[in-house]
Design goal:
Number of helices: 1
Order of helices and strands: HEEEEEEEEEEEEE
Shape: globular
Distance between the termini: 81 Å
Number of domains: 1
Radius of gyration: 19 Å
Strand content: over 45%
Helix content: under 10%
Structural class: mainly beta
Length: 142
């Protein structure tokens, strides 16, 4: 009997401001708990508008906008959407256009079927792009 605790006892010693299952302030934590996250078990259809950094590991169909925040598409994620963000990192599969105000980083496991527009573009060996890439300065040099 000594090993079992009541729900009230299991919560004692935990900061009341810390959500259940989260790590209290001052201890190491998973970075995904700081930003917004759409997990592997989630399938969404519609517009995703986020005012924080966003990581997507699931399936999204529609549009994804994070404004001047970072967007991370995880390995195994499947996206049928146009993406807009400051920095867009792609490790999964995208069907749609990608627009970044700073940089698009296409990882070795990533693929994009659509156009990519960003001042800076990085593509790892093994990554796939089926579309146009527009990168560099917005105005041509004279």
């Amino acid at each position: 009997m000594g090993d079992h605790m009541s729900p009230d006892e299991s919560l004692r010693g935990r900061d009341a401001r810390t959500p259940y299952g989260s790590t209290p302030i001052g201890q190491p934590f998973d970075e995904r708990r700081v930003a917004a996250w759409i997990g592997k078990a989630i399938t969404m259809k519609g517009d995703v508008v986020c005012s924080r950094d966003l990581t997507i590991d699931g399936v999204v169909e529609g549009t994804i906008e994070v404004g001047q925040h970072s967007l991370m598409i995880g390995v195994g994620a499947s996206i049928k959407a146009n993406l807009v963000g400051r920095v867009v990192t792609i490790g999964g599969a995208i069907r749609g256009n990608v627009t970044a105000t700073e940089k698009v980083d296409l990882k070795a496991t990533g693929s994009v079927e659509g156009d990519i527009t960003a001042p800076r573009f990085a593509m790892a060996e093994g990554a796939v792009v089926r579309g146009h890439v527009q990168s560099g300065n917005k105005s041509p040099r004279s």
